[in-house]
Amino acid sequence: MIVLKFGGSSVASATAMSRVLDIVEQAAAKDRVILVSSAISGCTDALLQIGRAEDPEHLIDDLEHRHLAIISRLFTGKERQEAAGDCRSTFSEIRCIPPVIESFGELLSTRILARKLSCEGYKTAWLDSRDLVTVRDSQVDTAASYEAIRSAIEEHPEARIFVVPGFIARDSDGGVTTLGRGGSDYSASLFAAATEADDLQIWTDVPGIMTTNPKLVNAARTIPEISYKAAFDMARYGAKVLYAPAVAPAREKGIAIKILNTFDPQNPGTVISSNCSLIGEWKGVASLDDPLSQSSEITLVAEGPVNPEAAARRITGALKDAGIKALDQVRCEDGTNFFITVRTNVARNAVAALHREFFEERALSALEVYIAGNGAVGKALKSIVDACGGSFPSAGKRIEIKEISSDHAFVDRVLQTARSRSVFVDCTDSTEIWHKFIDLFNAGINVVSSNRRSLAIPYVDYAALKAAAAQNGCFFRYDTTVGNALPILQSVSDGASCGDGLTRIEAVVSCTLNHIITSYDGARSESFATLLRKAQEDGLTEQDPRTDLGGGDALRKLLILAREAGVPLEEKDVEIVPMLGKEYFSGSLDDFYRRLEENEPLFIRREDELDAIGMRQRFVATLERNADGSFKADIRMKLVGIDSPFYWITGTENVTVIHSSEAYPLVIKGSGEGPRLAASGIIRNILQ
Ligand code: ADP
Ligand code: ASP
Ligand code: MG
Questions:
Q1: For the chain, which has fewer Cβ within 10 Å, the N-terminal or C-terminal residue?
Q2: DSSP per-residue letters across 530-544
Q3: Model confidence over 28-65: pLDDT tens digits?
Q4: Which pLDDT score, from 0 to 100, does residue 215 have?
């Protein structure tokens, strides 16, 4: 069974009804159909007005005329006469102003639709929902109603299409009643649940549940998928497109509800089902006016866990930016719905402001950027941006550097002053700054980092940063932490997310070590100790160059690479074999250099031996998938021959080789060093 429900605007005229008939006929070609219809648009309001008016005659005439006009367009000859007679007799009842006068609209519209379908040759049965849907103590008695619906269907084994008035029902005293304004959606859901329908489609005048009412905000867009819970919340807090009680019957029977547009039937609209986003996802903004207090309650609805403090800050910030004063604090219900009250005269602007903040890609005319770290990379970044006046036309964006600072308290200042959607750039070498990243994301601030120490942190912390960024719709990019401006991380994450995934990554990514290893030619020009001392003086090494030789930097890069490949690697999982023995790593720096000089003959001999067999040694970080799917990681000196991509490396070049079971290895090679290159990589991350 397929249940199709059409709202008032879908049946507002003969033209609209013809579209409805097309849709129904297509469904009837596949399965039996229950067509639930509302009254023609404005009819229920008009009937209520008639019920209240002192002299309702002209209102009744107008309404009758609208129905007769539809009839005369849809039917000819005898059919037209019969349909018009039927309509007039209903209007003579209406003229007596019966109780529950608003129940007549659905009778009128469905009789027209049923007659038309019969005329077109469909075996059609009109069912009176007043005899099928029972309301007891203001609640639908589902057991009794489902039973009645099922027997009514069984009584018409020949029928292909059932036509049913929405909205109306009978109470336990036998009097006619309704399911509440907008109640036809509920009728449809009840009929779908009773018949365990395969499909429940609610056809209306918009393409689904949208991020907000498109009549209030032009930029509203369709929500393709939403959970029953979030749809229910959107509906009960003001999204009129769906009547909230309609969710439960379908949900209880596990029937997905589709919201579709009668005027754009190909549009996939919204599917409401039990699928629920696992990470926090904002779904929409709804609003309800309270005419008595002239205030409006605006609700932001999320699905999955969102951070309440961050949400509250963004809501308050967005309203403040729009110059709107809220009447109270942001309130939160079960971690997913956020409420704020404003005066009704600014409600529309408030909805628009919140929609902009949470659902619209802002025309990023200017990206406000805060740079932490006024060292070589920070300075290069500023000079590149200054040189082009901040304008990057090919990306369609402008970068506005608000401040650059090496001050430790800078990040706190940014947190207090920066606007949501600004970008915080971490060009420091701080081991602490990442602790503030979650606060930045919670404030809606994006983060770009070239600081490996902000990423090579315990996996749980790394995962928490990523989740906080996603939850707040912020970006968190750090491509320059491995291989500088080379597209290594991007390639690894692409590789990991496609096909069979990665089998092995090998990387020679420590610029300092590369430089030293590749410059050393067995003391024909300079001794190993001299080369290292020079590198130290040129600022290429850490303050104590043994940190580099110990593989610490390579370790950080390997952690970042592995995690990008989806492997939750920790420091302790990596086996590091430093390029020099243990004895070098204790004692003072002077002792260290003395020991190196003493052992120079050993290095020369080793170099000569390698030359003789045509091999070179490289310090390689490797992540490899074992047969059982687990991964092993190590960093050690490896001998490579002329056929290895690692053989020909000079200076500070980096080489990363990504092996996957699907493709030939991907080799990424290029300069991995230099503040201007890092800065250009950062700019790419900001604009991306
Ligand atoms: P129908 O007569 O088809 O039942 P309704 O008028 O009851 O239609 O509901 C559709 C209307 O709901 C739309 O025209 C739109 O103005 C309004 N609406 C309010 N909030 C939303 C939303 N979030 N998404 C889509 N429509 C919405
Ligand atoms: N006609 C009723 C109303 O306007 C029911 C509906 O359209 O869903 O409220
Ligand atoms: Mg409706």
A1: C
A2: HHHHHHHHTT-S-SS
A3: 999 999 999 999 999 999 999 999 999 999 999 999 99
A4: 95
Identify residue 116 by its one-letter amino acid code.
K
Question: Among the three residues 205, 239, 274, which one is the final residue of a domain in this structure?
Answer: 205
> Of 442, 457, 481, which residue sits at a domain end?
481
Q: Which residues pair with 666 in a beta bridge?
A: 658
For 396, the domain range is 365-481
* Ligand 2 pocket, mutate which of 181, 187, 262 (most atoms under 8 A from CB): 181
In angstroms, the CA 132 to CA 144 distance is 8
Task: With cut-offs at 50, 70 and 90, classify the pLDDT of residue 261.
Answer: very high
Ligand with the closest atom to the CA of 167: 2
Does an H or E element contain 635, and which? strand 631-640
Strand partners, 339: 299, 331
Residues written for the chain: 688
Q: pLDDT tier at 499 (50, 70, 90 boundaries)?
A: low
Question: Is residue 406 situated within a structural domain?
Answer: yes
Per-residue confidence at 127, pLDDT binned at 50, 70, 90?
A: very high
What token pair was written down for 319?
A: 């309203």
* Ligand 1 binding pocket includes 182 (Cβ within 6 Å): yes
Residue 7 near ligand 2, beta carbon < 6 Å: yes
524 and 619 inside one domain: yes
Report d(CA 590, CA 19) in Å as an integer. 88
Mention every residue, 6+ apart, whose C-beta is less than 8 A from residue 380: 675, 676, 678, 679
* 183 touches ligand 1 (CB under 6 Å): no
Whether 426 and 467 share a structural domain: yes
C-alpha torsion sign, points 334, 338, 342, 345: negative
* Interval between CA 48 and ligand 2 midpoint (Å): 12
pLDDT band at 663 (very low <50, low <70, confident <90, very high): low
363 pLDDT above the threshold of 60: no
Tally of CA atoms within 13 A in the half-sphere of 386 that contains its CB: 9
Identify whether the C-beta of residue 575 lies closer than 8 Å to the C-beta of residue 551: no
Nearest-angstrom CA–CA distance, 1 and 200: 9
Let me know whether 448 and 520 are in one domain: no
Which of ligand 2's atoms lies nearest the C-alpha of 105? Answer: 1
CA distance 384 to 52: 72
Predicted TM-score of the model (pTM): 0.70
- The pLDDT > 70 percentage for the chain reads 98
What's the pLDDT at 449?
Answer: 98
Q: Is 428 in the pocket of ligand 2 (CB under 6 A)?
A: no
H or E, element range at 216: none
Give yes or no for residue 364 having a pLDDT over 80.
no
